[in-house]
Amino acid sequence: MPGSQGVTEWISPPPGWIKINFDTSYMSDIKQGAVAAIAIEGHILAGSIKRIKTMDAKEAEFQAAELAVKLAVNLNYLDVHLEGDNYNVINCLANKTTPPWNSS
């Protein structure tokens, strides 16, 4: 929900759930970037960051989502709310759209 200055406010996960925020930074001139994921339950529980080589920013966003899922699996979190800022990635995770690499 937008704040008073158009800034999105962070909303905590429901009780018993873990929220994992993920994002990326991409440098097109060298086709590299970094992805990060942070697990939160009222406070930071764990985090992960990874340097990546990728062809474009869209791929980097999907790699950030993958890192978030791997973080949840590695920490045995079952009730997880994933949050990112890329509309296409979120829709793919929610099974609302077909991933861009799917040929079917």
TrEMBL record:
A GO term for molecular function: RNA-DNA hybrid ribonuclease activity
Gene3D superfamilies with a match to the protein in the record: Ribonuclease H-like superfamily/Ribonuclease H
Record-annotated RNase H type-1 domain positions: 21-97
Source organism superkingdom: Eukaryota
InterPro entries on file: RNase_H-like, RNase_H-like_dom_plant, RNaseH-like_sf, RNaseH_domain, RNaseH_sf
The protein, known as: RNase H type-1 domain-containing protein
Annotated organism of origin: Thalictrum thalictroides (Rue-anemone)
